[in-house]
Automatic annotation (TrEMBL), chain A:
Record protein name field: Carbohydrate ABC transporter permease
Entry keyword ATP-binding: no
Record CDD domains: TM_PBP2
UniProt record similarity statement: Belongs to the binding-protein-dependent transport system permease family.
Pfam families linked: BPD_transp_1 (PF00528)
GO annotation, cellular component aspect: plasma membrane
A GO BP annotation: transmembrane transport
PANTHER family: ABC TRANSPORTER PERMEASE PROTEIN MG189-RELATED, ABC TRANSPORTER PERMEASE PROTEIN MG189-RELATED-RELATED
UniProtKB/TrEMBL annotation, chain B:
Coiled-coil ranges (or none): none
Record family assignment: Belongs to the binding-protein-dependent transport system permease family.
Organism: Streptomyces roseirectus
Pfam families, per database record: BPD_transp_1
Membrane topology term: Multi-pass membrane protein
InterPro entries given in the database record: ABC_transporter_permease (IPR051393), MetI-like (IPR000515), MetI-like_sf (IPR035906)
UniProtKB keywords: Cell membrane, Membrane, Transmembrane, Transmembrane helix, Transport
UniProt-recorded name of the protein: Sugar ABC transporter permease
Residue intervals of the ABC transmembrane type-1 domain: 87-308
Compartments in which it is found: Cell membrane
């Protein structure tokens, strides 16, 4: 009846739906935790186990015996961090240009970028390997970092974001104040799009952290691989796979990602609402 | 690429800034700023892609010498029922995943935007699925959709329904893959939509409120039109990534595939275009035909992206 009571009821309904969504998106993680605390034979028993078991320690020991978990984690960290820093810089710079400046060939170059974005990665994989071998990069982290240092996805994302977030009046004002191109980029554009950058940074880090196909091809030395490749080595021959151990590895591999995500999420949450959008 | 960002060589006595800027001099810094991407693409994209085009006109097992084949690979591609079958599979899986995903993501974003409390908790939780590696997700979903021991069938039994051999029927496979993709990407897209929602000036909503607009009118007259660039982004990315799906069916159907890890399950009903590419290239060692398949995939992806782009753009123009 009263509008306050109505809005409170609507608020409760809203949160009820949101909580259902939350449970749906969290459930497979719960399931993974369940799997990582059981032996393989327990996992495939019926009825399915719904509560955690007591074999987590055993699964961890098996995991550390099977692969160089921390060594490969360090490799992943190195690659993902380097790529993220490079991508944030190169992509936001290019996106700023495409979003806010006019120059001959702009439409053509952007269309080319979008076409590049649509090229399946598999198309180039084999020749790419040949080129890397010629450069002597195969087996080193350089072969993962350099080709990923700028990408079409990030430029597209930042451009879409910048078009809405950076107002032309702001740029005009800084131009009148004598700011050159790099100053406009660094002092006007970047502060405004920090939430967009945080998102791109998290996404890039995640993508690199979880990348599997290319590191598998490029890192030929089995002692020097990234985490996902190391994990895939666990998922060996059919029938003998120790699912409890594999899930334990997958869960532990998630920890650094969660930390990065938690840091980045605060960045997004802190700035998105305020922004520079007035 | 570092040099591309440097200033041009030593400045001559008369400062270029004092001269009227024309052509290259006027725009050089803009070209320099976008050049790293294009230089990297040249070295690690264009040249490899060009080589793959060259390969597609040959017969090549990847090791021996190449033999010129002209357009034979492409002629065969057009009549290859297995390839068309994989296109059908990919498009069905993509549609089964994308439409529920975009709808759910939009609804979630609008709800998140109006929720005052626990916003950050929801946002964090909804994004989590996308953080996880596809390999792990596929293993989890493989166990959830397992015929004999799976949670999904345990659930169906509990409510008195028949079991479904999810990973052994043509539609079951597609539903399982699409469910996995929807689960992994809905929250991600919801966060993107939310970012878009928050760039809409609140004055617009206040004005709508003053004019007495109901929530639906507000959504269709203000929110949706303002969200057009974001919606476009989501659709294009979903199309490009969805039509190139590989890891999901590969890992999910690995254990049920009888002849190859790239077969896509019984009857190839989960074989996507990219899985087919891998099968032709690495199982059959037919690099020439594999390259032609990759170009076919590329054309399909472009075609779908253009259709999507046009649809969304046109809706915004009226």
């Amino acid at each position: 009846m009263s509008s306050i009571k109505g809005s409170r009821r609507r608020g409760i309904a809203l949160h009820a739906v949101l909580v259902v969504g939350l449970l749906l998106s969290a459930f497979p993680f719960y399931w993974a935790v369940i799997m990582s605390t059981h032996t393989s034979s327990e996992i495939f028993s019926y009825p399915p186990k719904l509560l955690p078991g007591s074999h987590f320690g055993e699964n961890v020991r098996n995991l550390l015996d099977s692969i160089d978990f921390f060594g490969s984690m360090w490799n992943s960290l190195l690659v993902a961090t380097s790529v993220t820093v490079l991508v944030l810089f190169f992509d936001s710079l290019a996106a700023f240009v495409f979003a806010k400046f006019h120059f001959p060939g702009r439409r053509l170059l952007f269309a080319l970028l979008m076409v590049i974005f649509m090229v399946p990665a598999q198309l180039a994989a084999i020749p790419q390997f040949v080129i890397m071998a010629k450069l002597g990069w195969i087996g080193s982290m350089t072969s993962l970092i350099v080709p990923a240092a700028a990408n079409a996805f990030g430029i597209f994302w930042m451009r879409q974001y910048m078009q809405g977030a950076i107002h032309d009046e702001l740029l005009d004002a800084s131009r009148i104040d004598g700011a050159n191109f790099m100053r406009q980029y660094w002092h006007v554009a970047l502060p405004v799009v920090r939430p967009g950058l945080a998102f791109l940074g998290i996404f890039t880090f995640m993508g690199q952290w979880n990348d599997y196909a290319w590191p598998l091809i490029a890192l030929t030395n089995p002692d020097n691989v990234t985490l996902q490749v190391a994990l895939s080595q666990l998922n060996g021959t059919h029938g003998t796979t120790d699912y409890g151990m594999v899930m334990t590895g997958a869960l532990l591999a998630l920890v650094p990602l969660l930390i990065v995500f938690a840091i980045g999420a605060r960045q997004i949450i802190g700035d998105l609402a305020k922004g520079a959008i007035k | 690429m570092a040099t591309a960002l440097d200033k041009p060589p030593a400045r001559v006595a008369d400062d270029p800034r004092n001269r009227p800027r024309t052509g290259w001099r006027k725009y050089w810094h803009l070209y320099a700023a976008i050049s790293p991407f294009y230089l990297l693409f040249l070295g690690f994209g264009l040249i490899p892609v060009g080589f793959s085009l060259y390969v597609s006109f040959h017969r090549w097992d990847g090791l021996g010498s190449m033999e010129w084949a002209g357009l034979a690979q492409y002629r065969y591609l057009l009549t290859d029922t297995d390839f068309w079958h994989s296109i059908g599979n990919t498009v069905i899986i993509w549609a089964l995943a994308t439409f529920p995903m975009v709808f759910l993501a939009m609804v979630t974003a609008v709800m998140l935007n109006s929720a005052v409390r626990f916003k950050n908790v929801y946002r964090f939780a909804y994004f989590l699925p996308n953080v996880t590696s596809v390999v792990a997700v596929a293993i989890i979903f493989g166990s959830v959709f397992s015929t004999n021991f799976g949670l999904m069938n345990a659930l169906l039994q509990a409510v008195g329904l028949d079991q479904v051999a999810w990973l052994n029927t043509p539609w079951g496979i597609k539903v399982a893959i699409a469910t996995l993709m929807t689960w992994q990407w809905t929250g991600y897209n919801a966060i993107i939509f939310l970012a878009g929602l928050q760039t809409i000036p609140s004055e617009l909503y206040e004005a709508a409120k003053v004019d007495g607009a109901n929530p639906f009118q507000t959504f269709f007259r203000i929110t949706l039109p303002m969200m057009r660039p974001v919606l476009l982004f989501v659709l294009v990315v979903s199309t490009v990534t969805g039509l190139q799906s590989f890891s999901e069916p590969q890992v999910l159907l690995q254990s049920t595939a009888n002849d190859s890890t790239y077969a896509g399950g019984p009857g190839h009903s989960g074989q996507t275009m990219v899985l087919y590419f891998f099968q032709q290239t690495f199982d059959n060692n037919d690099f020439g035909y594999g390259a032609a398949v990759a170009w076919g995939i590329f054309l399909v992806v472009i075609l779908f992206s253009i259709v999507n782009w046009r649809l969304v753009q046109r809706r915004g123009e009226d």
